Amino acid sequence: MKILIVEDDPEMREFLRDGFEAESSTVDTADNGADGSYLARTNEYDVIILDYSLPKKNGGIICDEIRAAGKTTPIIFLSVMGEIYHKVNSLEKGADDYMTKPFSFKELRARVRAVARRPHKIESNMLCVGDLVLDGEKQTVLRGQTGIYLTRKEFNLLHFLMKNPGMVLSRSVIMERVWSAESDPFSNTIESHILNLRKKINVGRKKDLIRNVPGRGYSINE
Predict the structure, then answer these.
(1) Predicted structure pTM score
(2) pLDDT the model gives residue 185
(3) How many domains does the chain have?
């Protein structure tokens, strides 16, 4: 899952980033409304967590701009402003949920998962390509009966590939969906991660499931 957090309090921003990254999410952050609005409108996210009181642009304006740009990304407001007016106004502007601070991270995590499912059909946590099985809930990967250890980024990359079996995914799409906006698009990080994935999931001379399509990208299929 890729999440954008727009929060001006540095301690809260890092707390949220650390919490979601610990669960294998990719997280972008912004410390003001102008940057947050730009990131939300120019990148693809599964969920946006948005403070209301922000420098440069408040959360209400950001929400308006996101929806005006045609983005349907789920938005959760997370704010100290608990007045009914702000809650109702935010929901009417197109937000999907509103939580007040202080809050339980477990509850926020549950709400993030819930709103991320709403625009789509509820998908199984289990993904299979041939004898390769990825369990998104348990964060495990099996090839046949053999467990495979992957780093967090390797797991996220494999998860994205397996959610789109048979599709050729371009380098730019993979970078956008698996890496943060801060990553260098000209580095060879995708190539090195694909190489490591192949080594790990082809353990025991198993059939190579990941295909390199020259000039187009990568694909996974049986």
Answers:
(1) 0.65
(2) 67
(3) 2
